[in-house]
Structure formats: C-alpha cells, structure tokens
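Researcher: Excuse me, tokens okay?
***
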Amino acid sequence: MRGTYQNSTLVTEQVNRIKSRPNLLLWYTADEPDGTSDPLNATSVSSNLITSLDGGDGQGGAGYHPVSLVLNCENYFFTEYTSGSDIVLQDTYMIGNNLTHSTQWDTPCTEDYGDCGCDNCRGTFEDISTRMDEFRDRLFVNGWERTKAVWTVPQAFGNETKLTRSDAGVVSWDDPTSSDIKSSASLLAKSLSKMTPYITDPSASFRQVTLNRVDVGLWTVGKETLIVATNMNYDTATLRLQDLGLKSSDVGQILDSGSGINPDKSGFHFESVGSGAFVVKK
C-alpha cells in the first residue's frame, strides 16, 4: 500500500481482497512518510481503517494481521508516524551512499537537512545496529515496548546486500531478484528453525557484545547458548569463546554465511563481512 495508504477507498478494497489469505503475514502501509513529510496523522488513520476491516476495533487496537511501515529518518516525528504501526521498520542503507550530498535531490545532507538515504549515518555497519537500538529505545520511552516491534529492511538490491540483526523480522522488497540474494535469504531462512527455540524461549537470557567490530548476540537457555555473529570488517576476523565468557568443546554451527568453527573449537573465524550462528553446550 506504499502508494495508496492515504486513499481509504483503495485501502478498503485491498484489505478486503486478501485479508483471508493464509499466507498473508502483515500489512505494509507508509514507505518513509517522514522523508516525504506525509501528514502526521496519516499512518494512524490508515492503520485504524485497516484494523477495523481486519478484526480490530479501528480505534488503535490490533487487528488480526499487524500493520507495518518503514521510517527513513533517525528521529523526525518518530512518535507521530510510528503510532500508526505495530511493526516499525528501518532501512539504514549505508553501503555505497554519498552521505554528504543527495544524488537524487541534488542537495547537501547535514544533521538537520537533506535526504541521502541514510539519515545521520557514518557509512559503517554500526549505522544499522545503532538505528535498531535507537528505535527500540524510543518505543520504550513511548511505552510501546510490549505492543510494537522493530524489524529491518536489508539493503538487498542491485549488487548490494547486507545481513543485519533485528528483533524478529527482516522484510525485503524486490522479487524476483538476483540469485545470490535469493541464496543468502534462503540460507538464513533454513537456519531459523534451529535458532527460534532459543530466541523465542521466555526463559532465555540475552546479551549483546561487540568485539573487534564483530557484532554478537547470545541467547542462553539452560546449559546451551546460541551465538549469532556478524563481522563488520572488510577483512577477516576471529572470535574466541573465552572472550564471550564461554568454555566448551561441544560447539556446533547452524548458519554458515562466511564463517566457521576454529579447528581446536576455541572460537570462530569470519570472512570479510561474514556471518554465522553457533550453539555452544556446557
């Protein structure tokens, strides 16, 4: 609905047409409404209409399928636009961007002005994790930490791809796409069934660390720890178990996207911008 979400007639038609399909995951309404300065209440008006047609009360309560939107800016009327969503997406596209001048609008980009496709970015992979953390913090400040979630839109088009961390979901736009992007997405999807028992377990303890620009998430359930790590360097990198406070010889790998277990099982190695998921048992 990215081009029609403000048209109530078209929204009604679209929702009623497909709301009963079993393969429908969520509704997607506004595409960067903060970047185009859409009316501040536009997302809420659309969301209320959608939920009224999809099993909700139409007054802010949830419908059967969640409503999502994506924000472009770091913090431009975040509360107003996000109020019209159950899932807020971020699309921090930091690869190959001119972060000081917009090639599309031919305007400069500063901390206060301009749209270069990656608002207030530094051109590193940390831009992604920082934006995710900031969005999550703003949901908490608004009292939405239990009613809204932060997902991500990967820079996965043309010749550019990236693997990012997120709370629960990754949403891509272009299909059909190139075979390498399909292959990477399929590899991640096939590994998720082995990750979700840890990530979704209410008893899991979670912590996040960054060591030598290797971004690491750890979910511990009982005597087992799921480790998901991404090397943010354009060079090889290593990660030792002892640096994570872990020690075990029982280590298995469930996702290999440019990574592996060291031969002595003391840790892991990563290719340039490689990622991996591992399970360590005490």
Q: What stands out?
A: The radius of gyration is 20 Å.
